[in-house]
Amino acid sequence: MEQNWFFPPHDGIRLDMLADQIGATLEDQTVADRVVRSVSPVYRAKQDDICYMLSRKNRSELETCQAAAIVCDKAIAAIVPPHIPVLLTQHAHTAFAVAGSLLYPQAMRPVQNLSGPPGISPAAFVDPSARIEDGVQIEATAVIGAGAQIGAGTWIAAGAVIGPGVRIGRDCTIAAGASVLCALIGDEVIIHPGARIGQDGFGNAPGPKGGMIKIVQIGRVILQDRVEIGANTTIDRGAMDDTVVGEGTKIDNMVQLGHNVRVGRHCGIAAQVGIAGSTRIGDGVLIGGAAAINGHITIGDRAQIAAMSGVAADVPAGERYGGIPARPMRDFLRDMAEIAARAHSRQKKAGGNDE
Questions:
Q1: Is the peptide bond before 325 cis (omega within 30 degrees of 0)?
Q2: How far does the signal peptide extend, from start to end residue (predicted)?
Q3: What does the DSSP 8-state code read for residue 194?
């Protein structure tokens, strides 16, 4: 890949210092003063790059690797060529993620569009009753509503809309074009471009003449500390209770959370997931892309939902579910194997009849 001017290389971190910061062991101390400036895939890593490997099935990529070091566990270290230093760890994926954050801190949040002096742009629209702490950055065309409160170190990007009475904590990032209404936002929250937080939820009652009558939505959205919300994700405010996303939870792009949904702490929700209203998601839950979650059900702590599943009923804590309707993964895989076997049998019979 040609030089990426959007994210230029780091000035350099010594390999031994990097090892200490990511919790890895440098096997060859003779290269302790080697300097790392960037991250790279294994197959095209150069002498100032660091990379990582999780599986032996990618060993062919080592043939073209010239990395400053490879982050891996003992099993992978055995196949690494002797000219490539090893940073040994039992948690290679996590260690590499930390290394990336050290080498590219500017890539950990949406890119700022700031072109003027720091502070509040004269082209922003800030209501006089808003309370803005020192050190807040508000870019041109952002709108801050009456009575809003924004904590120190927070950055509000161009075109973002912060509604009346919204409270945003410290060191948050509200990216370009996002809207935040009827919401309480904790510290170190990241909201990516185009996200919609706090609009009214979907609720209707049957009308007297066959139509529908909208049900009032007077709750809030609460995003706890260190939550991250992906681009174009929508989180509806509660009807009469609150919609809540727990501390440390990461939500991907184009996810829909309905009114009164409560998501626990440190969950991961992949793109295009839809969660219907009043569902309860426990702590540490992982939900794969494009899964559909029914309303008024509970998914227990540390459960995992496979991509493109349809979850119609409660999922017990710690279980892995998949399929439509979602069921325990062992049952889903058995069903898929039986379907494949029947299909193969039909094809075989059809081929025999042709003969």
A1: yes
A2: none
A3: T
pTM for the complete prediction? 0.90
CA-nearest of 136, 236, 232, 225 to 181 is 236
* 255: its two tokens: 């996810």
DSSP annotation of 308: T
Q: What is the spatial distance between Cα 250 and Cα 298, in angstroms, rounded to a whole number?
A: 19
- Could you give the 3-state DSSP secondary structure of residue 259? coil
In the chain, how many domains are there? Answer: 2
Domain that holds residue 212: 118-266
Name which of 282, 284, 244 is nearest 260 in CA terms: 244
Q: Which H or E run includes 8?
A: none
Tell me whether residue 266 is one of the annotated catalytic residues. no
Per-residue pLDDT of 44-69, as tens digits, reads 999 999 999 999 998 999 999 999 99
> Out of 10, 259, 266, 296, which one is annotated catalytic?
259
Distances, alpha carbon 186 to alpha carbons 73, 171, 221, 282, in Å: 36, 9, 11, 19
Distances from the Cα of 345 to the Cα of 89, 154, 352, angstroms:
47, 62, 11
Least Cα distance to 28 among 81, 105, 107 occurs for 81
Asked if 217 and 236 touch (Cβ cutoff 8 Å), the reply is yes
> Domain ends where: 229, 248, 266?
266
Residues in the chain: 355
In a domain, 339, yes or no: no
Could you report the per-residue pLDDT of 102-148, keeping only the tens digit for each? 999 999 999 777 666 789 999 999 999 999 999 999 999 999 999 99
Q: Is residue 344 in some structural domain?
A: no
Neighbouring-strand partners of residue 179 = 161, 196
Last residue of a domain, one of 230, 245, 266: 266
